[in-house]
Amino acid sequence: MAETVSVGIIGCGSVMQHAYMPLLVNEMARGHASAPIVCDLRADRVAEVQATFPTSGSTLDPQDVIDDPTIDLVVVLTSMPEHGDLAEQALAAGHHVLVEKPMSLSLEQAARLVELDRTGPANLLCAPHVLLSPDYQRMVRMMLDGRIGRPLLARARYGWNGPDWGQWFYGPGGGPLFDLGVYNVTTLTGLLGPCRSVTAMTTLTRSRRVVDGEEIEVQTDDTFQLLLELGDERGSVLATVTTAFGMQQYLGPAVEVYGLDGTVQMLGDDWAPDGLQLWENSLGSWQTFHSRSRYWPWTDGLRHMIDCVRTGRQPYTRPEHAYHVLEVMLAAMEAAATGTTQKITSTFTPPAPMAVDEHGPQHLIHDRVHEDAQ
Ligand SMILES: NC(=O)c1ccc[n+]([C@@H]2O[C@H](COP(=O)([O-])OP(=O)(O)OC[C@H]3O[C@@H](n4cnc5c(N)ncnc54)[C@H](O)[C@@H]3O)[C@@H](O)[C@H]2O)c1
């Protein structure tokens, strides 16, 4: 067990500087992680990070991080097309790895990543970390307790105008399904079980955009509707995922699951939940459950992974789930291109809900006090 986890971060862009690094600073304050070694191909990015955060070293070559035997955990936060190679090399070198989504752009490489996790000395945690949110955990418990009965339909959505940085978001291997819809597919399969088949329609709404101050041609579709057949031994559940780089605002729930005895919905976004609403036929009324996730950051996987490395525990979200989600997304794109429903061959077992104490530290303390006071 490593008391203080030594971290190497590859990719020092927006998400690293604004989301993961502040969380890592908290972990450093708790004595759970040391100041990271940071890496980016761009010297200006590395300089920005070093001017803002504590670091223990820097490099412009990711191989330096991969070859460093003092590093316990490698965090891959690069643009999406680089994820697979960097994660594979880091795992093969014996490091634990947290990789942003998607784990790879190819199923062949994703299968190798799953195998390295299964057979190697190190663990792989793949974003998104939506299964760790306290509101997700509460929702899955309600469903397993039978409070909405047998689920039959579900829907999820996540969209916004799209990034005005990172031209790769609009190139091959980019697009809103890999960037945004991936959260919804992960949430729905976590709640309802593996996907058996998928069909989709996609379109391009804006073929030119200004990104990094430059007008570029968009090379991926930016608007997606997916229809998934999900389910386990309880039977099929038909679910939709709506995602786009072009949605402006919404107020409706992020995720809704309709059962024969009730409905449960997650407010906010599944990466930033804002409470639950539950209809139970037996009560004949809506109940609102205050968010348990108000202080839950979507980067919580890093806190979780650091705890796993320190304690030798296996991460809660398994790479088999991320592989399955990748197969669904690739199949959805194939369905849209060919106009034919695609069968999904991979499967996984959604993890049982966590004990409440496993949710992690500070972000629940306020909530517990609040609930005690009610
Ligand atoms: N931006 C967000 O809000 C957000 C949210 C959740 C997840 N993500 C995911 O996080 C990842 C990064 O997103 P971002 O918005 O920070 O992108 P970004 O373009 O701002 O940053 C990516 C960085 O990776 C660096 N990089 C690329 N290839 C590299 C390599 N081989 N070695 C070292 N550095 C390399 C780039 O120079 C760049 O600085 C993406 O996978 C994205 O899907 C982003």
Describe how the helices and strands are arranged.
Elements: E1 7-10, H1 14-29, E2 37-39, H2 43-52, E3 57-59, H3 62-66, E4 73-76, H4 83-92, E5 96-99, H5 107-119, E6 124-126, H6 134-144, E7 151-160, H7 176-192, E8 195-203, E9 208-211, E10 214-217, E11 223-232, E12 235-245, E13 255-259, E14 262-269, E15 272-280, E16 285-289, H8 300-311, H9 319-338, E17 342-343, H10 365-373
Parallel strand pairs: 1-2, 1-4, 2-3, 4-5, 5-6, 7-12
Antiparallel strand pairs: 7-13, 8-11, 8-17, 9-10, 11-12, 13-14, 14-15, 15-16
Helix pairs in contact: 1-8, 4-5, 5-9, 7-9
The structure holds nicotinamide-adenine-dinucleotide (NAD).
The site of nicotinamide-adenine-dinucleotide (NAD) has 23 residues, from helix 1.
What does this structure look like?
With about 375 residues, this protein is an alpha/beta fold. The chain folds into 2 domains: about 5-125 and about 300-315, Rossmann fold (3-Layer(aba) Sandwich), CATH 3.40.50.720; about 135-295 and about 345-360, Dihydrodipicolinate Reductase, domain 2, CATH 3.30.360. About 35% of the residues lie in helices and about 25% in strands. The chain contains 10 helices and 17 strands. A hairpin with a 2-residue loop joins strand 13 and strand 14. Helix 1 packs across helix 8 and helix 4 packs parallel to helix 5. The longest helix has 20 residues, at about 320-340. Residues about 360-374 have low confidence and may be disordered. The structure holds nicotinamide-adenine-dinucleotide. Nicotinamide-adenine-dinucleotide (NAD) binds near residues 11, 45, 79, 101 and 166.
